[in-house]
Write a structure and sequence with these properties.
This protein has about 300 residues and is an alpha+beta fold. It folds into two domains: about 15-105, 2-Layer Sandwich (Phosphorylase Kinase, domain 1); about 105-260, ATP-grasp fold, B domain (D-amino Acid Aminotransferase, Chain A, domain 1, 2-Layer Sandwich), CATH 3.30.470. It is built from seven helices and 15 strands. The chain has helices at about 55-70, 90-95, 120-130, 170-175, 180-200, 250-260, 275-290, and strands at about 15-20, 20-25, 30-35, 40, 45, 75-80, 100-105, 105, 110-115, 130, 135, 145-150, 205-215, 220-225, 230-235. The strands form four sheets. Strands 8, 9, 12, 13, 14 and 15 form a six-stranded antiparallel beta sheet that branches. A hairpin with a 2-residue loop joins strand 13 and strand 14. The termini are close together.
């Protein structure tokens, strides 16, 4: 298995954030964003990392940004270390394949979630209330069934250790402004529809995804990771059927394991067995190869 990176330590660079997965350094006019192999589930960071995960997130994000740049600009400058500032190059061995040089932007305080299929927390919400995040849905829907049209279900953006909170469109409008909320809803659904078409041609269903946006000098841009196994639910088309949960190429595999344990979803997390770690890594790799058509080199 590939070596696992849980955190970076670059004493001569300015660390400004260590999130659930990413370490971010301020380089002055730009940011250095590094994807570690950390994995969070239920907003808790697991003690063990997932081999190859950070490199897959970076490569997959780069793939999607290229396919989406005509819809909305993004923050990516380069993933090539030769384009990075000189002070970064001494860390090339750590940074290679898992880092992005990006434009600075002011993050918008919203997690932009779009759902094309009823699953996960949306399915649980529907079973209890007949609605999803306050949006009334038709009666009689089955688990994993597609919606007639994708729905936008934003959440607040939590700090590390806190939980994101699903909110209504009116609530997120009060937080970020109605015009911004409407623009983000439009962009999120447009991005999802484009990605879903691309993925279906490769035998993958994107059931839902989470996007983040920021504001730069040129207006709203797409930031952070995009359409990765960490931020999306990927299902194989060849085994898909309604009325049940689906096999997934994402971290739902870890969530499902954790749900079998007597754990209250608060730190400290339970230890992940080696076979769960290895199978999760395999799912991330398979998602990458299927979606991009490229072989992943460890």
């Amino acid at each position: 298995m590939s070596s696992i990176l849980l955190k970076t330590d670059f004493p001569d660079l300015k660390l400004i954030n260590r999130g659930k997965v990413r370490d971010i350094y301020d380089l002055g006019d730009t940011l250095l964003m590094i994807s570690s192999d950390r994995l969070s589930a239920f907003d808790v960071i697991m003690s063990e990392g997932i081999p190859c995960k950070g490199k897959i997130l970076t490569s997959m994000t780069e793939f999607w940004l290229e396919h989406l740049k005509d819809i909305v600009p993004n923050h990516l400058i380069s993933t090539d270390i030769n384009d990075f500032p000189e002070e970064c190059r001494k860390y090339a061995e750590v940074l290679s394949g898992r880092s992005m040089l990006v434009k600075k932007a002011k993050p918008i305080a919203a997690e932009c979630i779009v759902r094309g299929y009823i699953s996960g927390s949306g399915w649980k919400d529907y079973q209890k209330t007949g609605a999803i995040c306050g949006i009334e849905m038709p009666s009689g829907l089955k688990e994993s069934e597609p919606f007639p049209e994708p729905i936008f279900t934003p959440s607040t953006k939590a700090e590390v250790g806190d939980h994101d909170e699903n909110v209504s469109f009116d609530q997120i409008s009060d937080i970020i402004g109605k015009d911004t909320a409407e623009k983000l809803r439009e962009l999120t659904i447009k991005i999802y529809k484009r990605a879903r078409e691309i993925a279906e041609r490769r035998g993958i269903i994107i059931a839902d995804t989470k996007l983040e946006f920021g504001v730069s000098d040129n207006g709203i841009i797409l930031i952070d990771e995009v359409l990765t196994p960490d931020s999306s639910r990927f299902w194989p088309m060849d085994s898909y059927k309604t009325g049940c949960s689906q096999m997934s190429f994402d971290k739902q595999f870890v969530r499902d394991y954790l749900l079998t344990l007597d754990w209250d979803k608060s730190p400290p997390p339970p230890a992940l067995p080696e076979d769960i770690i290895e199978k999760t890594s395999e799912r991330y790799i398979e998602a990458y190869t299927k979606l991009t058509g490229k072989e992943f080199v460890k």
